[in-house]
Amino acid sequence: MLPMFFLTVLGCGSGSSDSNQAAGEERTTIAAPVIPTFNADSAYRFVEKQVAFGPRVPNTDAHRECGDWLEQSLRRFADTVYVQTARLRAFDGTILNARNFIGSFQPHNRNRILLCAHWDSRPWADHDPDPANHYKPVLGANDGASGVGVLLEIARLLSETNPNVGVDIIFFDAEDYGKHRLMNVPDQDSWALGSQFWANNPHKSDYFARFGILLDMVGAENATFKHEGYSMMYAPNIVRKVWEIARREGFGHSFLNREGGYIIDDHYYINKIRNIPVINIIDQRDHTPHGFFDYWHTVKDNMDNIDKNTLHVVGQTVTTVIYSE
Ligand code: AHN
Ligand code: ZN
After folding, report:
1. Residue 59 burial by CB count (10 A; 0-12/13-18/19+): exposed, middle or buried?
2. Residue among 122, 180, 216, 225 whose CB has most ligand 1 atoms within 8 A, to mutate
3. Where are the domains of the chain?
4. Substitution site in 264, 298, 301 for ligand 1 pocket (most atoms within 8 Å of beta carbon)
5. pLDDT average, residue stretch 97-116
6. The domain over range 35-324 is classified in CATH as 2.40.100.20
């Protein structure tokens, strides 16, 4: 079932029989897609729910419990759900019991789009201004839960209204177990372990999507999304398409047509290993030391800095992209 309304446009031609039309004109019917309205209150509740479990650090109860809830939530909305389990070795030798969750919509549609976010939170607040917090876990309201919350709301919309494309929503684990700032060990490939695993072992061996969108830190007040470096390197036309749709929606104040930094994140490995063009919608700032939002990797990454307006700007943009395909 494809919900459409029909725009009737007067065209020039012959053979018209409609009595309301002048001679020499005919009606051309163009199907315009119905774009659902993204509900930022609903997305906010999905963020809140994850944060209520506590820091979702791999190998903790909060992580297991939140993972179980994510699986249940995807089962409510998606047609098919895959759970990938893996034991992943972190840079410090810790073995992480990780799960990636994949929710597929219209699994038999060969025209597919991939949407993703990481669901784990960081074990260490190593950018906190107070050194006493450098080994405390991060709640990850923005860094983790925001992207998942937006995608759960999109999953809910997909369960109500079919777009023309098939969609896969992936929640990656173990993105944020990257090297601690104060540990003197190699950083190489220490981030995004869940997506590295998926890229090497996709849930379907011949998996392909025409393009993908990663959401990372999409919930803070005054977020600014710039053209991230690897996104421009691997998928410049997708960046331009998404930023143009955002501009048309009136979100040009958040989606800036400016060059951002190169961020090693889940999209990087999917581009590099699986050759699927994936962009990263990630909040990048001008006036913070690390280039991210103020409370990045601090104990203050909590619900206080989640802004429904930012969730809406990102959620409505991605929704419009999907339903315009
Ligand atoms: C690096 O700092 C190399 N990547 C940041 C990826 C990230 C961390 N996204 C969220 N948290
Ligand atoms: Zn992080």
Report:
1. middle
2. 216
3. 1-32, 35-324
4. 264
5. 98
6. no
Per-residue pLDDT reduced to its tens digit, 3-51: 444 444 433 334 344 444 555 556 677 777 899 999 999 999 999 999 9
Indicate if ligand 1 lies below 6 Å from the C-beta of 143.
Answer: yes
For range 223-241, the mean pLDDT: 98
Q: Strands (DSSP E) along the chain, which ranges?
A: 4-12, 25-33, 80-89, 95-105, 112-118, 166-172, 211-216, 225-227, 255-259, 278-282
Task: Determine if the pTM surpasses 0.70.
Answer: yes
**263: its two tokens:** 């961020």
Residue in the structure block whose two tokens are 């061996």:
205
Beta strands in 57-185 (DSSP E): 80-89, 95-105, 112-118, 166-172
Report whether 136 contacts 124 (CB < 8 A).
yes
